[in-house]
Amino acid sequence: MCFGRCARCIGYKLLILALLSIVANILLYFPNGETRFASEHHLSKYVECLHGILGGGFLVLIPAAVFIGLHNDDCCGCFGHEDCGKSCAMLSSVLAACIGILGSGYCVIISALGLSHGPYCFSHLGRNWIYPFTESSGGYLFEYNKWSECQEPQNIVQWNVTLFSILLVLGGIEFILCFIQIINGILGGLCGLCCNHEEV
């Protein structure tokens, strides 16, 4: 098994997932495609945490770029061993994977809190902008008849639930891939970049 090729494969997957996270987080800012709720600060506090843009996005793009660029790390070796430079590059990819774990973990936590807390909306009950589902601890997710309590933005519950769920899944996959790369990087660093001779 080639550790370097595995790392690059993980890198390309992380690149796609990070871009999807950024898009999903941006969509959270514009319920039903309207900009006025963002400009009037009528969005959930968890939307403004930038967990998809910063956490699942840019902090995951860093390891993605490192993993994809591993084949360019033609270090000159050390102690007379030409493979040593590439092995060190694989070990250094573990640090990049840790950054990805922090970013994806942040994305997962905020997404879970956003789902549990519910949307910020104009409720006909209090005739004000409130969090009508905070006391339910996520129970509102299965009580569809209560979703109509949010009058504005229209369909905000469905909008938030869908996008926060997508970000939760994307962040979870990113976390798993970064964890796999930690193991792959350690094994690749200890065993050499490639088990065969085509990349040596």
UniProtKB/TrEMBL annotation:
Q: Where are the transmembrane segments?
A: 12-30, 50-70, 91-115, 161-180
Give the subcellular location. Membrane
Query: Which Gene Ontology cellular-component terms appear in the entry?
Result: membrane
InterPro entries per the UniProt record, alphabetical: L6_membrane
Cross-referenced Pfam families: L6_membrane (PF05805)
Q: Name the domain of life this protein comes from.
A: Eukaryota
Report how it sits in the membrane: Multi-pass membrane protein
The protein's UniProt keywords, in alphabetical order, are: Membrane, Transmembrane, Transmembrane helix
Give the similarity note. Answer: Belongs to the L6 tetraspanin family.
Recorded protein name is Transmembrane 4 L6 family member 1
